[in-house]
Amino acid sequence: MAAENATPLTTEVLVVGGGPVGLMLAGELRLGGAEVTVLERRTGPTTESRASTLHARTAELLDGRGLLGRLGDPPREPRGHFGGIPLDLTLPGPCSGQWKVPQGRTEELLDAWARSLGADVRRGHELHTLTAGEDHVEARASGPDGTVVVRAAYAVACDGEDSTVRRLLAPRFPGHDAGRELLRADVAGIDVPDRRFERLPGGLAVAARRPDGVTRVMVHEFGAAARRRTAAPEFAEVAAAWERVTGERIGAGTPLWVNAFGDASRQLARYRHGRVLYAGDAAHRQMPIGGQALNLGLQDAVNLGWKLAATVRGRAPADLLDTYDTERRAVGLRVLGNIGIQAGLLLGGPEADPLRALLGELIPLEEVRVHLAGMISGLDVRYDMGPDGGHPLCGARLPCLRLLVGDRPSTGFRLLRAGGGVLLDLVGDDRIRAQAAPWADRVRYTAARLDGPRPDGLPDGTDAVLLRPDGHVAWAATAAGAARNGPGEALRRWFGEPGEAGA
Fold it and tell me: Could you tell me which residue ranges the FAD-binding domain spans (predicted)?
């Protein structure tokens, strides 16, 4: 191995982990003008099947960066589940339902996007040490050309549930380890019936045949405890459990990928530790039921990226970075709670049947269905906007708006594509334009009008809306209300003092 580099590589933000969460964060940081270096142990995007579901809120965020269309036309399924009980995920908006995109494709897309924006993505680099001082962090990693030293203002751990950063720095990570687990495998050359969370006397079985002929199987034996694993299970273990539960033999098939995941549930006590932050599975560990884990991590990245970029560029309010912890830790706690309930419904034996029967009666009720669909999709996430949060939209994500900017059709999501904040003026009031002018270097004023009827979710009389870069509403008002109590305080809270453009 070559000798250690004599001169450290310097950057503003070091991202450890180049999976979907780390790459999403890298792109967001670059949109905000921050220098970013990504260190990833793997030499290329994952070829494993892993997570394959993008929920509606994640699809909206991708659309807000101009990325959704690059996925082509992936299958979209309105039907999801809650603990294996069918659940219709249909909600208002163009991104409703589950988008079926293999994780490798998502990672490939985000890798190309982050690089196109100027992110320095270094694959084949494995982190060994990370130290955090008062004014910088320093990392050492082994790469193809030897040891690389990276010095940065901040580091973000996006390196998964077995996070090296978390192991090195040992932040408090309360919760519990797995007590039960699901075995899963992608298998070629087998012919078994498709099963959607079929509960049999001995356990739970799932089978789904893909268009390419490969079948994903998942199996849990009721009462079986999770094993302590240092590697993936052997396919023979999966095949034996499948036969005991279903009576079918799949051992002659060809396993393409084998995996086990348990019902562990842990969350960092804090997502920010000085100059080191955590996102995705490095910050929270949960059973990946319904694809929520990947989506939670991608949404972490979009919440953090603009805040950290503003901080390193010197234009953030003093406490802006701390809002990442308060906002996303609360969301993560709620997701871990609903996943814990679903794990009990899925993996519990006969003792879970009464609760499953009760939920089976409640979920068809529209109010219950909408509540659960909003929670699983991420569409109902609402942040505390403080004193400016009196309007019904404040804290929520902007609902889908069809707009005319001049004579050009647009949408609320498209207004976010350049990064930065947006002050959307739906009545063309010069007073609103004047109030936004001092922040023109980081908040784009846009006059537009609705293209069609007022959509669900936009209260009558909403004439002006201040959007954070993540698409959440920081302030909203009527034109008269804006004249009396404009967006100035909200602009200061989220974008700093006017005219401080940073270095």
Answer: 11-336
The encoded tokens of residue 189 equal 């050359």
Is the pLDDT reported for residue 285 higher than 90? yes
Q: Which domains does the chain have, with CATH numbers?
A: 9-73+103-175+266-346 (3.50.50.60), 179-262 (3.30.70.2450), 386-495 (3.40.30.120)
Query: Could you identify the residue written with the tokens 């982190």?
Result: 127
**To 10 degrees, what angle do helices 292-312 and 322-347 make?**
170
The residues near 257 (Cβ < 8 Å, ≥ 6 apart) are 48, 49, 185, 186
Mean pLDDT value of segment 397-422: 93
Sign of CA dihedral 471, 475, 479, 482: negative
Kindly give, in sequence order, each residue whose CB lies less than 8 Å from that of residue 102, ignoring residues fewer than 6 positions away: 49, 50, 52
Cβ proximity of 10 and 25 under 8 Å:
no
Say how many CA atoms lie within 13 Å of 173 toward its Cβ. Answer: 22
DSSP line for 433-480: HHHHGGGTTTEEEEE-EESSSPPTTS-TT--EEEE-TTSBEEEEE-HH
- Sequence-distant (6+) residues with CB within 8 A of 441 are 499, 501
pLDDT of amino acid 455: 87
pLDDT at 2 over 50: no
* pLDDT averaged over every residue in the chain: 93
Contacts of 346 (CB under 8 A, 6+ apart): 83, 84, 182, 197, 204, 220, 289
Residue 159 in contact with residue 42, Cβ under 8 Å?
A: no
Q: What is the pLDDT of residue 502?
A: 38
Confidence class of residue 44 from pLDDT cuts 50, 70 and 90?
confident
- How far is residue 102's CA from residue 50's CA, in Å, rounded to a whole number? 7
Which residue, 57, 45, 41, is CA-closest to 295?
Answer: 57
Q: What is the pLDDT of residue 47?
A: 67
Three-class DSSP category at 374: helix
Token output for 11: 């950057």
Which tokens in the block code for residue 274? 């000085």
The two structure tokens encoding residue 242: 């499948």
| Global confidence as pTM | 0.94
DSSP string, 338-366: HHHHHHHHHH--GGGHHHHHHHHHHTTSH
Cα separation of 320 and 443, whole Å? 16
Cα–Cα distance, 103 to 20 (Å, whole number): 8
Question: Side-chain half-sphere of 24: how many Cα atoms within 13 Å?
Answer: 30
**438, 353 contact by CB (below 8 A):** no
Concatenating the DSSP letter of every residue in 261-272 gives EE--EEE-S-SE
Return the amino acid letter for 459: P
Q: Are 250 and 190 in contact (CB under 8 A)?
A: yes
Residue 500 has pLDDT above 50, yes or no: no
Count of residues making up the chain: 503
